[in-house]
From TrEMBL:
It comes from Allosphingosinicella indica. Homotetramer. One of its GO terms (molecular function) is aldehyde dehydrogenase (NAD+) activity. InterPro entries: Ald_DH/histidinol_DH, Ald_DH_C, Ald_DH_CS_GLU, Ald_DH_N, Aldehyde_DH_dom, ALDH7A1-like. This is aldehyde dehydrogenase (NAD(+)). The lineage of its organism: Bacteria, Pseudomonadati, Pseudomonadota, Alphaproteobacteria, Sphingomonadales. Residues 35-492 form the Aldehyde dehydrogenase domain. It is an enzyme of class 1 (oxidoreductase). Belongs to the aldehyde dehydrogenase family. The active site is at E266.
Length: 509
């Protein structure tokens, strides 16, 4: 274990001020009262930001609706040009924005840079998409009739995001929504509002380079759950894209359905990996490590359950323990650190209670101890491995912390069934060099998740594919493929260019 000196884990006021200044958000961070934003690195106060009131939220939604009315009239490729400039602004600010993600969310530098790269990637994707918002032409059964399917902008998109991907989730939604002709109202996590200010600044920069966009094209709502609830309830916002826990999605989904809105839900995962006898362990072990301890186990796609075939179980467990023993845990800004802090004390306490419970059931529990306790309100932990061996129980809940539960299996069909036998359905993976096993895992009778990977881990998706999962993960899809359709309304158009009025299905009237 490459432990670091606790004394060096501190966010210096000068460093914090420089980070805020580099992104031009110092002023927004010195409100006399409001939301206190703490860094998970050392628990220190980063900023106090003013929160929105019900009246200011109402005004922002009105501005967004007005911006939509104008923005939708711009040709989509022009909208794409704006998103291209947004991507350029993100490129030029990549290091600064990533540094703020690290300060505010505690991500290690390489992951924070990766998150901003993901924003740039989705902008690039959306630029191309702006010339490809294709519909269909459909053969009509009636003479001299033409049928077509056309995609129109839909309205303001409410984006509610979680703390763990504090900027990428906004970009996934915003880049697509903007080329689709929608305005965006963003309610970032109350744990990470500063990055939202930074993104809004970069957005304004791109707008200036574009020659102006409608006022209110991007609105940011600062607040907690109540601000989100107001956004979710407002009928002027036809689409709500909400990313967070399944508990949140259960409430939001019902509320949006109640007013016949459209919800895109990206909720919790409880992701499993299967390691088969033929697996190349030189790939599987680092994939497990990245999946289980990356972002300190705080990814929706983190590997939480591991099913290892009996023939290789002991070897895999042994190698995992050896890898865990060399993990560099500590200040996420320091080069070489692989595991940064948990987001806060609440996350730490939940992790401890889950481990306490596991100690009564599992064969062996290793890790989970708090580290650098002397740093104060910062919560560093040794990632935990919980060995369940032949226990046929499963882990039903997502715990947003680095806990890997390991089970032994003998029959692949059984391992796949256990992969599926949880409420969530986000990501899944198998390591095997047996083509039949790989095909079974990805077949209709295989993994029931939105993401199924072969010989790579559960986390770290590319933006080109549609991202999301089934069941308690919410069923939403964002990012690549045809996820853009979620941000538009489909209109079936039939035109009669003849001189008679034939009715469909041969009806005479
Ligand atoms: P959270 O559910 O506590 O909060 C997420 C967001 O929802 C916050 O902005 C919060 O203010 C808001 N919110 C909470 N209750 C609300 C309500 N009733 N109405 C409107 N808004 C409400 O989640 P978190 O702790 O910030 O993030 C961790 C969770 O997010 C994990 O479960 C993780 O798996 C999930 N997540 C999922 C994805 C995905 O794409 N599937 C991506 C990232 C995170």
């Amino acid at each position: 274990m490459l432990d670091r000196a606790a004394s060096s884990i501190a966010v210096k006021a000068d460093d914090r001020d420089a980070a805020l200044k580099a992104l031009g958000i110092s002023e927004a961070c010195t409100a006399p009262s409001g939301l206190a934003v703490h860094s998970p690195i050392d628990g220190s106060l980063l900023a106090t930001v003013a929160t929105d009131t019900p009246a200011s939220i109402d005004a922002k939604i009105a501005r967004s609706a007005a911006a939509f009315a104008e923005w939708r009239t711009l040709p989509a490729p022009r909208r794409g040009e704006f998103v291209r400039l947004l991507g350029e602004a993100l490129r030029s600010a990549k290091a600064d924005l990533a540094a703020l993600v690290t300060l505010e969310a505690g991500k290690i530098t390489t992951e924070a840079l990766g998150e901003v790269q993901e924003m740039i990637d989705i902008c690039d994707f959306a630029v191309g998409l702006s010339r490809q918002l294709h519909g269909l032409t459909i053969q009509s059964e009636r003479p001299e009739h033409k049928m077509a399917e056309v995609w129109h902008p839909m309205g303001p998109v409410g984006v509610i995001s979680a703390f763990n991907f504090p900027v990428a989730v906004w970009a996934w939604n915003a880049a697509l929504a903007l080329v689709c002709g929608d305005s965006v109202i963003w309610k970032p996590s109350e744990k990470t509002p500063l990055v939202a200010f930074a993104c809004a600044r970069l957005f304004a920069q791109a707008a200036a380079a574009f020659g102006g966009v409608p006022d209110g094209l991007l609105e940011v709502l600062i607040g907690d759950r109540a601000a989100g609830e107001q956004l979710v309830a407002d009928p002027r916002v036809p689409i709500i894209s909400a990313t967070g826990s399944s508990a949140m999605g259960r409430i939001v989904g019902a509320r949006v359905a109640d007013r016949f809105g459209r919800a895109i839900l990206e909720l919790g995962g409880n992701n499993a990996m299967i390691v088969a006898p033929s697996a190349d362990l030189s790939l599987a072990i680092p994939a497990i490590l990245f999946g289980a301890v990356g972002t300190c186990g705080q990814r929706c796609t983190s590997t939480r359950r591991l099913f290892v075939h009996g023939d290789i179980y002991d070897e895999v467990i042994d190698r995992l323990h050896r890898s865990y023993a060399t993990l560099a845990i500590g200040d996420p800004r320091e080069e070489g650190t692989l595991v940064g802090p948990l987001i806060d004390g609440g996350a730490y306490r939940i992790m401890q209670s889950v481990l306490d419970d596991a100690r009564g059931k599992a064969v062996r529990v290793v890790g989970g101890e708090r580290m650098y306790g002397e740093v104060g309100e910062a919560f560093y932990v040794r990632p935990a491995i919980v060995e369940f061996g032949d226990d046929i129980s499963n882990v039903q809940e997502e715990t947003f912390a680095p806990i890997l539960s390991v089970f032994r299996y003998t029959d692949l069909a059984d391992a796949i069934a256990r992969n599926n036998a949880v409420p969530q359905g986000l990501s899944s993976s198998i390591f095997t060099n047996d083509v039949r096993e790989a095909e079974l895992f990805t077949a209709a009778v295989g993994s029931d998740c939105g993401i199924a990977n072969v010989n790579l881990g559960t986390s770290g998706a590319e933006i080109g594919g549609a991202f999301g999962g089934e069941k308690a993960t919410g069923g939403g899809r964002e990012s690549g493929s045809d996820a853009w359709r979620g941000y538009m309304r489909r209109q079936t158009q039939t035109t009669n260019y003849g001189a008679t009025l034939p009715l469909a299905q041969g009806v005479k009237f």
